[in-house]
Amino acid sequence: MNLKETLNWRYTTKEYDASKKISDTDMAEIKNLLRMSPSSVNLQPWHFIVAETAAGKARMAKGTQGFFSFNEPKVTNASAVVLFCVKTDADDAYYQHIADTEDKSGRFPNDDVKNRFLGAVKAFTGIHKYDLKDLQHWMEKQVYLNIGSFLLGVASLGLDATPMEGIDVKALDEEFGLREKGYTSLVAVSLGYRTKSDFNSTEKTPKSRLAESEIFTVI
Ligand SMILES: Cc1cc2nc3c(=O)[nH]c(=O)nc-3n(C[C@H](O)[C@H](O)[C@H](O)COP(=O)(O)O)c2cc1C
């Protein structure tokens, strides 16, 4: 499939074939996609809970009870579910950890370059932590960027997906002890294979988007 075909092929899957499992090879690709996403100053302010087993998905389904139950079958019948979590804070020790990781990856020819990088990390995070006072919100933006590239990436692997903000983040934070670890949950993405009967498939229901004339100003 070329890019245009992939963009039309992917859609928010509403009904999964519970008998189909994502291969180990594709699960490895999925984890690599999550890991390789860009983020501002390479902050990587995320953590991912990956539910691959029935027991893992049952735990994930604790976030799709009550008001959120419309999303429950998309969790239980999918092959896997990724819960995107964001850091609730960032401090000097974390910035140092990022710089040390870059260093180990061989990105700095000398300590001056490393210190300049660390200075940039502190400058940008400082703007958000102290001037704009939106550090957590800014870190969430980095996680959403990951989600965006993830949705296209998994489609390119021929996998169906469902991004879900309709989840009980408090219940999931409790289930996975996230807040104690400095994270909170944001969005879940189910992964697997569509059923033939899924009403939302682009074979049955065409995609709807605003017209080019409305969303572009080409100068
Ligand atoms: C961040 C985000 C959260 C979403 N939350 C849900 C959800 O909780 N349940 C659901 O069925 N669809 C959810 N959607 C799917 C959107 O409704 C869907 O992406 C949109 O209608 C465009 O359709 P398409 O994805 O099929 O192209 C979500 C999409 C995004 C990007």
Automatic annotation (TrEMBL):
Residues 8-193 form the Nitroreductase domain. Pfam families: Nitroreductase. SUPFAM superfamilies: FMN-dependent nitroreductase-like (SSF55469). Signal peptide: none annotated. The keyword Cell division does not apply. GO terms for molecular function: oxidoreductase activity. InterPro entries: NfsB-like, Nitroreductase, Nitroreductase-like. Keywords: NADP, Oxidoreductase. It comes from the Bacteria. CDD domains: NfsB-like. Belongs to the nitroreductase family. This is Nitroreductase/dihydropteridine reductase.
